[in-house]
Amino acid sequence: MDRMPAWADAVLVPLFSLLLAALLSALVILAIGENPVEAFNLMVEGALMRSAGWGYTLYYATNFIFTGLAVSVAFHAKLFNIGGEGQATVGGLGVALICLYIPWPHWSLALVGAALGAAAFGALWALIPAYLQAKRGSHIVITTIMFNFIAAALLNYVLVNLLKPAGQMDPASPVFPPATHLPTFQDMFATEAVPLFRGAPGNVTFFVAILACLLVWLLIWRTRLGYEIRALGHSESAARYAGISPVKIVVVAMLISGGLAGLMAVNTAMGEAERLVMNATEGAGFIGIAVALMGRNHPIGVFLAAILFGFLYQGGAELALWTNIPRELIVVIQALVILFTGALDNMVRMPLERIFLAFRKERA
Amino acid sequence: MDFATLLQVLDSTVRLATPLLLACLAGLFSERSGVIDIGLEGKMLIAAFFSAAIAALTGSVWMGLLAGIVSSMLLSGLHGLASITFRGNQLISGVALNFLAAGLTVLIAQDWFSQGGRTPSLMSGGRWEAITLPFAESLRAVPVLGPIYAELISGHSILVYVAFLCVPATYWVLFRTRFGLRLRAVGEAPEAVDTAGVSVIGLRYAAIVICGLLCGLAGSYLATGLQAGFVKDMTAGRGYIALAALIFAKWRPWYALMACLLFGLLQAVALRYQNIDLGGITIPVQVMDALPYILTVVILAGFVGRAIPPRAGGQPYVKER
User: Fold this and answer.
1) Of A328, A342, A346, which has the smallest distance from its Cβ to B87's Cβ?
2) Does B233 touch chain A (CB under 8 A)?
3) How buried is residue B151: exposed, middle or buried, by Cβ count under 10 Å (0-12/13-18/19+)?
4) Scanning A40, A145, A250, A340, which has the fewest C-beta atoms within 10 Å of its C-beta?
5) Which residues from chain B sit within 8 angstroms of residue A156, using beta carbons?
6) A132–chain B Cβ distance below 8 A for any pair
7) Torsion of CA A305, A311, A313, A318, to 10 degrees
8) pLDDT for A224-253, tens place per residue?
9) Could you state, in order of their start, the residue ranges of all structural domains in chain B?
C-alpha cells in the first residue's frame, strides 16, 4: 500500500509534468525578452477563439492522434516505436498511389481505399524492424530510427524519379484527382449565413481519428489480442508461460502501430495538400511520443494530449506570425513534455507518492 | 577517376568522418557504461550552436569551443539526471534532449542574432585554421606519397587530428586502465562493480561527462571547422549516423574509426556525385544517403557478424536492499 491511487497516477502526474513544462517554457519566453502571458493569450486567441483556429488545431490534432495511438499501442507491448515518422512517410506513398492510380467515383470510397493503403504501407514499414526485434533481438529503437532515414531517402527517390510530373520543379506528386477531395470542416459545417472554419485544413479524417481511438480502446482492453499485447508488455516470461507467442505479438503489435502511424498520411496528403510532398509528416511521428507519454497510453488520454499539442502547434504558428518568437518554441515545449512525462517521471512521481503516503498515515 | 580526384574525395572523407568519429566515441563511452545515448545528435547540435555563437561574439574559436563543450556537457548532465539519478527511460530522455537542442538553438539564435535561426558567418579567428604539417610543401613533389601527405594528411584543422588521436586514447583508457575496466564492467554487470565497492553512479556520470566533452568537440568542429557558422538543424542526422557507426563497430574504438571512415566516404561520394553510373546501372544518390542506415540494419539483424551491445545497456541500476 505504498502507491498512490490510480486516479492520481493517471491525472496528477501528467498534470504536474505539464505544469513544470509550462513553467519552464514561460521562463524560456521571458529569457528571450517576450511576455509569457501575452504569448499565451495570443496562442489561445489564434488557436481556440475562432472557428478557423479550431480548424487548424483539429487538423494538427488528427495527425497527433494517429501517431500517438501508434506509439501507445507499441508501448503496451513494451516496444518503443520511434519509427512513426518513417511509417507515416511510407503511408503517404500508399495514399498517393491509391489516389492517383485508382479512379474513385466518390470521396467516401476513396477515403476507405486510401486509409487501407496508408495503413498497409505504414504497417509494411514497421514489419522489418518488428521481425528483426522478434526473431533476431535487434533493438527496435535503433532499427526504427534507421528506417526513418531510409523512408526519407525512399520518398525522395520516388518523388524525384518516379512520381514527379515532367517539367515540375519541386519534388512532389501530381495533384490528386478532384473526386478524392475530402470534405473539410468548411465544406461540412459552413453555410451561406455562417461561414465557419474558413480556409482551415481540418477535415473528415478527424472523425476517422476518433474512430481509431475507439477501436484501439476496444482492441487493447476488450479483445484477446489486446490482452496478449498487455500481458507481453508486463512480463515476457509470464506471457510465455501463458502460451502467448512473443514473436507473434511483437510483430502484430508493431504492424498495428505502423498502420496507425501510416493513417496519419490520409490527413496530410489527402485531406490537406491533395498531393504527396516531401517531408509532409513535419515531425508528427515524434510528437506521437510526447502525446502517448502524456496520454498515459490510453486512447482518451491520447485524444486529449493530441488536442493540446494541436493547440500548441496552431498557437505556435500564430506566435511566429505576430511576435519574434519562432515556431521552434513548440519544439522546446514538446521536448520538455517528453522529458518530464517520460524520462523524469520519477522526479514528479516520488514527491507526489510521498505526499499521499503522509496523508494515509495521518488517517490511519 | 584520376588520382587527384580520388585524393579530393578521400580528403573530404576525412573531414566528414571527423564529427562522426567524435560523436561515435562519445556514444562509445556512454554505452559501454550502460547508458544508451540517442541524444548524441542534440548534444552535437547545441555544441555547434554555442561554439559558433560565442566564436562570433568573441572572435575567438577557442572560446567557442569552450562554450560548445560546456553546453554539450550540460545536456549530458540532464541525461544523467534523468537516466541515472531518477532512473528514467534512457531512450525517452535522449529523444527529449534532441528536441530540446533542436528548439533551443533556433530560439536563442533568433534572439541573439535575428538572422532566422543562424549565426553570422565566422571570420578568420572565429574558425579553425588548417594546419600545415612540417615539410608538406617540400615533400609534395615526391610521387604518390607526396600528394597524399600534403593533401590528405596535412592541411586539416586541429580538431581533425584530435579526433583521430582520440581513437588510440579511447582504446587505451577503456582497455588499459583501471578506470576503463570498471567502466566496461559497469555496462555489463553493474551489480558486480557495486559489490566490489565501486560507485556505479559515479562511473556512469564519469562516462557521461566524457560523452559530453566529445560531443562538444564534434559540434564545435561542425560549426567552426567544417562550416563557417551555425545553421538550423545543421547536424542533419549525423548523431544518428554516429549511433549507427557505433553499432557497426560493435562498441569498439578501432572498429569505430573504420565505420566512421566508411560512412564519411559514403557522405563524401554522395556530396560529389549525384548519381553514380556503374556500367549501365545507375545508383541514385538516395541510395548513398540511405546506405549507412541500411548497413546498420543488416548488421543489427545479425546476418553479417552479430553486434552484441553491453549487457546492462538501458537499465537503470537499482541497488539491492
Assistant:
1) A346
2) no
3) middle
4) A40
5) 286, 289
6) yes
7) -170
8) 999 999 999 999 899 999 999 999 999 999
9) 3-301
